[in-house]
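subagent[fold] <- orchestrator: predict structure for attached chain, return tokens only, no commentary.
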Amino acid sequence: MSTDVSLVSKAHHEILRMILEGELKPGEVLQEAALGERLAMSRTPVREAMKRILSEGLAEVQGRFTRVRRCSEAEVDEIFFIRLSLEPTCAAAAIGIARDELDAMEARVMALMREGPGDEGRAWDTDNEFHQMIALAAGNRATAKVIANLHRRTAIFDHTQVPARFLKGCAEHLDILDALRDQDGPRAEKAMRAHLEGARDAIFRRLQTLNADRADAT
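subagent[fold] -> orchestrator:
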């Protein structure tokens, strides 16, 4: 099973890289067999990776075909506008999270900082569960569901795409956890806002670099 997960992760990273770097262009059909041959993999991990690419908003189904779509700066701006409207408020309202839950999350974040992100799943799971812990603690499951969906669509810009954000993002998570442990809602809200703005700005810089690289290549 671990081998299968590793292959899916590898296929996902490679397809993601090809989309972001322009090797797979908007409108181009994603075909399991062709991608499997290109990646020297069977169809199964490629199929699972394509499902993830779809959920992240970098592909869309048109009739019988799955086609590439590119995440634009405008789309990222819209996603973070909504996240910034929801998540800082959730952080302010999440001061009732139990100390042992906060301590457990802190231990996970600190382990990432010591050991590095490792495989894609470990870092993504920790980040996702951190944001979901806070959203659910705010007491609105519908809001938590919206945040989870938006988080999934920006998680493509992980440590492999914006490596400078990895340790900084972890440190910001610890700041938010400290504020929650102190039951300081305003400080948690401010720390969450700074965290999201930092992530947004790093993604903008990455997209601008990718766009400039594509322009130079044409």
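orchestrator: received. Logging for downstream: The longest strand covers residues 59-62. The beta strands are 59-62, 65-68.
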